[in-house]
Write a structure and sequence with these properties.
The protein is α/β, with parallel strands linked by helices. It has one domain (about 5-55, about 95-210): Rossmann fold (3-Layer(aba) Sandwich). It has helices spanning about 30-40, 135-140, 155-165, 185-195, 205-210, and strands at about 5-10, 45-50, 70-75, 80, 105-110, 145-150, 170-180, 200. Helix 4 links the parallel strand 7 and strand 8 (about 200). The model has no long low-confidence stretch (mean pLDDT about 95). The chain binds zinc ion. The site of zinc ion (ZN) has 6 residues, from loops.
């Protein structure tokens, strides 16, 4: 095993809702599954996240009269992109992809369950106040370095990576184990912000080569 006890793999939102045919499909989203399955055995520690919304969630365009998906609305905590309905609690759309193989995962963080606040980040909800508890969990377990993968690069992965850096973790994003939504240049912008924050960027082959 390459990685040691101070490192963890964080698998972001590998759910049917973000796969082709899902509520909020990410192009080629299912391509991340075999890549994540290849790198997962390198890690003793792993955490999964799961977008987990009530049906009346504030991030759904259908819950705002006259609004369409991908339009932006100003909410009390700031700008919110309105999405098609996705990952509603307990539905097949919210289920983790059945082919995902990270059996050693020790924690599943569900996020976005507060009706009036979205949460792209695995650490802090979109009001930038409410914590998911993940930072405290990882620190209590002595984990200092995180490897992020999953969906979508420019939203939940990027926000999680930036919050992890702000919380003092070393952060690496495994680029080919992610796919982006890329709404009006959001993918390039996310990589710029992550680079500026000191987030490292690697390919899965580099990780696997160092473990060989
Ligand atoms: Zn969501």
């Amino acid at each position: 095993m390459l990685q040691d006890a101070s490192q963890a793999l964080i698998v972001i939102d590998v759910q049917y809702g973000f796969m082709p045919g899902g509520g909020l499909p990410v192009a080629d989203g299912d391509a991340v599954v075999p890549v994540i399955n290849r790198i997962a055995p390198l890690f003793a520690n792993a955490v999964l996240t799961q977008d987990w919304h009530p049906a009346d969630h504030v991030s759904f365009a259908r819950n705002h009269a006259g609004m369409q998906p991908y339009q932006t609305l100003t909410l009390p905590y700031g700008e919110q992109v309105l999405w098609p309905m996705h990952c509603v609690q307990g539905t097949p759309d919210a289920a983790l992809h059945a082919d995902l193989q990270v059996p050693q995962a020790q924690l599943i963080i569900r996020k976005g369950f507060h009706r009036d606040v979205d949460s792209y980040s695995a650490f802090v909800e979109a009001d930038r106040q409410t914590t998911t508890g993940l930072e405290a969990y990882l620190k209590a377990r002595g984990i200092r370095s995180l490897y992020l993968c999953g969906l979508a690069t420019d939203y939940c992965v990027a926000w999680s990576a930036l919050d992890a850096r702000a919380a003092g973790f070393e952060v690496t994003v495994v680029e080919d184990a992610c796919r982006g939504i890329d709404l009006e240049g959001s993918l390039a912008r996310a990589w710029e912000q992550m680079a500026a924050a000191g987030v490292q960027r690697v390919q899965s082959a580099e990780l696997l080569a160092t473990a060989a």
